[in-house]
């Protein structure tokens, strides 16, 4: 079992930055793919970014490409999502997810965090 806890959400003005963290416990997730998804009010959950177990490859939704960066520090059992140039449309609950076989945009990961709210004011 892997437990995931997100942190770092909050209220920020458009154009600002936030860094989300996803701390894993229960077992090492260094070989797992890790991803971030988000869900805005009234919308379906959508893929944001993912990183492979080796950390060698990253994937992004077109809507965040060039603004967001996913990374991981396996020594700390933690993954991150650096979000820059935030827009009002980035407002959502952001969820961290992990899966032993990796994460793709259409994945249904096995492990999920509880989510952290990100609100971007215009």
Keywords:
122 residues; mainly beta; seven-stranded mixed beta sheet; four-stranded antiparallel beta sheet; 0% helix
Could you characterize what this model shows?
By secondary structure, the protein is mainly β. The chain is built from no helices and eleven strands. It has strands at 3-7, 10-13, 18-25, 33-39, 46-51, 58-60, 68-73, 78-83, 92-99, 111-112, 116-121. Strands 2, 4, 5, 6, 9, 10 and 11 form a seven-stranded mixed β-sheet that branches. It has a four-stranded antiparallel β-sheet with strand order 1-3-8-7, with no helix packed on it. The chain is globular and about 40 Å long. The mean pLDDT is 95.
Calculate Rg over CA atoms: 13 Å
The number of distinct helices, counting runs of at least 4 residues, comes to: 0
What is the 3D form? globular
Structural class: mainly beta
Main sheet record: 7 strands, mixed
Write the layout of secondary structure elements.
Blueprint: E1 3-7, E2 10-13, E3 18-25, E4 33-39, E5 46-51, E6 58-60, E7 68-73, E8 78-83, E9 92-99, E10 111-112, E11 116-121
Parallel strand pairs: 2-11
Antiparallel strand pairs: 1-3, 3-8, 4-5, 4-9, 5-6, 7-8, 9-10, 9-11
Summarize the structure.
The chain contains no helices and eleven strands. It is an all-beta fold. Strands 2, 4, 5, 6, 9, 10 and 11 form a seven-stranded mixed sheet that branches. A four-stranded antiparallel sheet has the order 1-3-8-7, with no helix packed on it.
């Amino acid at each position: 079992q892997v437990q995931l806890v997100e942190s770092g959400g909050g209220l920020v003005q458009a154009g600002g930055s936030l860094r989300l963290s996803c701390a894993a416990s229960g077992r090492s997730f260094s070989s797992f793919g890790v991803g971030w998804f988000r869900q805005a009010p009234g919308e379906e959950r959508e893929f944001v970014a993912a990183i492979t177990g080796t950390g060698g490859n990253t994937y992004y939704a077109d809507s965040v490409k060039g603004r967001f960066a996913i990374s991981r520090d396996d020594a700390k059992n933690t993954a991150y999502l650096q979000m820059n140039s935030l827009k009002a449309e980035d407002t959502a609950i952001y969820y961290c997810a992990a899966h032993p076989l990796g994460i793709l945009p259409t994945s249904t990961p096995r492990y999920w965090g509880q989510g952290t709210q990100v609100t971007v004011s215009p």
